[in-house]
Q: What sequence folds into this?
């Protein structure tokens, strides 16, 4: 087996890995459910390569993500449900169908892309077995903050939305107060947060997502940036302590907090 730029080679490799007689024991044990977390992880690694502007890494990560598609298609083919070619046909059909202003009749192309065309096309494709109600087609497997935004956007389209950011910020203060109250009411010394605290914390995050939506901010991107900032500043702390032959475990909060402010002062 040799590398190739032809997608058929990747399909052959996956078939060999899943061969019951000579395949890889690990690959043979996998199912849709066990592979799904890897699929999500690979999508995030693609996003990470893009965020870092690393095109060489992006090439590799896109390959890893493509492997996930081939993997799922192979398992479906083993069940005689569909194969990789069917996946390709399904997405090419969808792209043509959803872009009449590009691939349609002369009149459709002349009309151009009207606002909301994508959502209307998706709505027309809903199947009879879809989850009921306006929110039924928002995927459960999305990251929670992203799903919150999509749920809120769906509700907003029928008028269920705050008219401006001001009442959303007021709601944020209200939810924070309710969380503080739940914490104050919880038994002291509990090993874990009570269901009431967890519920109020979830409500707070949901409103935070709504704040992001009104500000037209992607909360996942904003949180990723905050994570990276935390890493930069904590590494600064480690480096400064290391210059003294010490580690964070040999420091205390007051000293590390002062170093954090120093990192902030340097624009990290």
A:
């Amino acid at each position: 087996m040799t590398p190739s730029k032809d997608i058929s080679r990747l399909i052959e490799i996956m078939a060999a890995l899943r061969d019951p007689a000579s395949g890889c024991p690990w690959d043979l044990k996998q199912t849709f459910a066990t592979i799904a977390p890897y699929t999500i992880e690979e999508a995030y690694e693609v996003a990470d390569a893009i965020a870092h502007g690393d095109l060489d890494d992006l090439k590799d990560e896109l390959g890893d993500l493509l492997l996930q598609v081939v993997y799922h298609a192979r398992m479906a083919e083993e069940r005689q449900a569909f194969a990789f070619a069917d996946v390709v046909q399904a997405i090419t059909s969808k792209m043509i169908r959803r872009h009449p202003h590009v691939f349609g009749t002369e009149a459709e192309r002349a009309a151009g892309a009207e606002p909301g065309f994508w959502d209307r096309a998706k709505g027309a494709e809903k199947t009879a077995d879809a989850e009921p109600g306006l929110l039924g087609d928002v995927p459960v497997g999305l990251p929670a903050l992203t799903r919150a935004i999509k749920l809120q956007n769906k509700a907003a389209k029928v008028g269920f939305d705050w008219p401006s950011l001001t009442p959303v910020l007021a709601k944020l203060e209200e939810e924070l107060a309710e969380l503080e109250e739940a914490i104050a009411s919880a038994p002291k010394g509990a090993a874990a947060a009570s269901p009431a605290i967890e519920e109020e914390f979830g409500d707070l995050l949901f409103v935070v997502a709504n704040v992001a939506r009104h500000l037209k901010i992607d909360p996942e991107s904003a949180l990723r940036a905050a994570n990276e900032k935390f890493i930069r500043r904590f590494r600064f702390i480690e480096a400064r302590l290391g210059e003294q032959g010490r580690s964070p475990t040999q420091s205390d909060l007051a000293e590390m907090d002062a170093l954090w402010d120093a990192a902030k002062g340097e624009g990290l």
The CA atoms of residues 86 and 92 lie 10 Å apart. Residues 144-217 form a domain with the Helix Hairpins fold (CATH 1.10.287.1080). The chain has a mean pLDDT of 91. Residues 219-243 form the longest helix (25 residues).
